[in-house]
Amino acid sequence: xxxxxxxxxxxxxxxxxxxxxxxxxxxxxxxxxxxxxxxxxxxxxxxxxxxxxxxxxxxxxxxxxxxxxxxxxxxxxxxxxxxxxxxxxxxxxxxxxxxxxxxxxxxxxxxxxxxxxxxxxxxxxxxxxxxxxxxxxxxxxxxxxxxxxxxxxxxxxxxxxxxxxxxxxxxxxxxxxxxxxxxxxxxxxxxxxxxxxxxxxxxxxxxxxxxxxxxxxxxxxxxxxxxxxxxxxxxxxxxxxxxxxxxxxxxxxxxxxxxxxxxxxxxxxxxxxxxxxxxxxxxxxxxxxxxxxxxxxxxxxxxxxxxxxxxxxxxxxxxxxxxxxxxxxxxxxxxxxxxxxxxxxxxxxxxxxxxxxxxxxxxxxxxxxxxxxxxxxxxxxxxxxxxxxxxxxxxxxxxxx
Length: 401
Known about the structure:
The chain is α/β, with parallel strands linked by helices and 401 residues long. It has helices spanning 2-13, 21-35, 60-82, 94-103, 126-129, 135-147, 170-183, 231-236, 240-243, 274-282, 301-317, 363-367, 370-385, and strands at 110-121, 155-157, 186-195, 198-206, 212-217, 263-265, 287-292, 321-325, 330-333, 339-343, 349-359. 37% of the residues lie in helices and 18% in strands.
């Protein structure tokens, strides 16, 4: 609500009952960028997500989510202003035309083969995940899914938080090692890792020989879900007793965003931030993987929005992206954000996808958000600095003589 109030204040500064489409478009993009920044950053609800499934989405390879939001906000602003001043209505076509022309341009990436990926969706509800007495049942679910995989396959994908403390439970780990060896595939599985008094949300990568070849620890944690921002401050002002029962300990973020070989892994919340996917692609990831645990979302629209944001990350980076959820949604997006297929949520099962591998960098990967944010700032400031002051009405005096 604070960001919305800031936008309305900025919008009103330009004057006029309806304001300027320049301010509307530029201001909206700047507010969305601010909303996604910092420890409380949150990108759900961005209007760029409305482009998923449409012809404008590939334009994200040039300017990222900000470019898409700029086009939508410009069009909306022109239509709103056009309701009072018809001269603005033709300008509404500029946004779609620019986005469509950008979407038709080559992305600058190169295809280099495909991976056959098997996605395993266990459909284990959150209440079952938190019940340690039901761990044997969870193991049986994974055993059933793994034993049903028929080789050949290149990649076996399991969700975030599949089983806790796998690296410290050799018997549980052996289930996944045996599956990797039998199928001859690399296997990724979500777990928690305890080290030196710290807990990490971790993805474990096993080779086709069942050996651990890498891990990735989540770097972007969910505020008030996986850690409490500024916990010491809340404690100092006497609110610690309210926060500690809600979240008694903080998880620790990973040290850096980095691919594991050619695999760019984003754990759950991380896939909502374009900067994470961009860094993975910049550092050599050829495909993006999103193991997630969206059982928290139930059957709300957030479940679908999180999945849709994967299409944006794919189009921005020119990489195929696959998401694997505990309860769904599991599926994939192509390098231009096209739908590769998905498995229905709240269903146990597996699906196989052919994932194209891509190298090289899109313009957005190379330049980031700076150019679009600079353009947005210029658009937002233009009507403010060029606003004409209203003429003052002078007092009429009596003439003498």
